[in-house]
Specification:
single chain, mainly alpha, two-stranded antiparallel sheet, two-stranded antiparallel ribbon
């Protein structure tokens, strides 16, 4: 009788341990799903950033810059000179383009620090929603990985000699769900690694092609500062689709119009 009581206690302990592990996974799944949806709708509903009306490039008087948009010189920008690297002009929108701004043929306008037009979010990914896009990828990877791990024991059971419980339709659905989640997790992982590489070099997908013709990238400030250009400096905001008021106030790069660059490369262009 003592032995049967010990066995029963051990079985209850195993059940509670398994239940606790399952509860932890369910909590992670729910929290991850909430963050995934929050990030997704932030990407969809946030304007990636457009060129403000009457935009004019900043003039650094201490460095001896002059305003290139005054008087008759402004009219010359309608047919910009190839050697003019400090002022960029969009022939389609008929206005001056800020640094790192590109024209989106799908949206029909210039987008600040445009990365690409994403059909999955039905929006451009640019300066104001790039962080939200990366978080959407991260939480998608987290969710698909957790689901894949949860289904792994059932997937392995298909290749065991023992009898598998459940109807054929349930087994087929479980098998298919595992394969699809695994494939999706691997594809998102590769995409996230690519964007992590871009963030570490302070480039976008479009700029990655431009860097091939540029020996030195003026916006590469080091991995830490490059990361902060996208995610901000306040660590508690790194994993949520939002920025602190402090970062928005003192980091112009988060607004998409001004970007710090290497002083030595700036002096070479002057």
């Amino acid at each position: 009788m003592y032995r049967s009581g010990a066995v029963m206690a051990w079985n209850v302990f195993r059940f509670c341990t398994a239940l606790r592990g399952l509860g932890s996974i369910m909590i992670l799944l729910v929290l991850g799903l909430v963050m995934l949806l929050w990030s997704y709708f932030s990407v969809v509903l946030t304007d990636p950033g457009g060129v403000p009306p009457n935009y004019r490039p900043l003039v650094d008087e201490e460095r001896g810059d002059v305003d290139q948009l005054t008087g008759s010189e402004f009219t010359q920008l309608t047919t910009p000179e190839p050697t003019n690297t400090r002022v960029r002009y969009c022939r389609k929108c008929n206005h001056v383009k800020p640094p790192r701004c590109h024209h989106c043929s799908v949206c029909g306008r210039c987008v600040l620090k445009m990365d690409h037009h994403c059909v999955w979010v039905v929006n451009c990914v640019g300066a104001l929603n790039y962080k939200y896009f990366l978080l959407f990828l991260f939480y998608t990877l987290l969710e698909t990985t957790l689901v894949t791990i949860s289904l792994l024991p059932y997937f392995l059971a298909f290749f065991s000699d023992g009898e598998i419980a459940g109807s054929p339709s349930t087994l087929a659905t479980t098998f298919l769900a595992f394969v699809l989640n695994l494939a999706f997790a691997l594809s998102v992982f590769g995409f996230l690694i690519m964007h992590a590489t871009l963030v570490s070099g302070n480039t976008t997908t479009i700029e990655a092609y431009e860097k091939k013709t540029c020996p030195k990238w003026r916006y590469d400030l080091g991995r830490r500062r490059n990361f902060e250009q996208v995610f901000g400096t306040v660590e508690r905001y790194w994993f949520i689709p939002a920025y602190s008021e402090e970062d928005l106030r003192r980091m112009p790069a988060l607004q998409g119009l001004e970007y710090p660059s290497k002083p030595d490369l700036d002096s070479e262009e002057s």
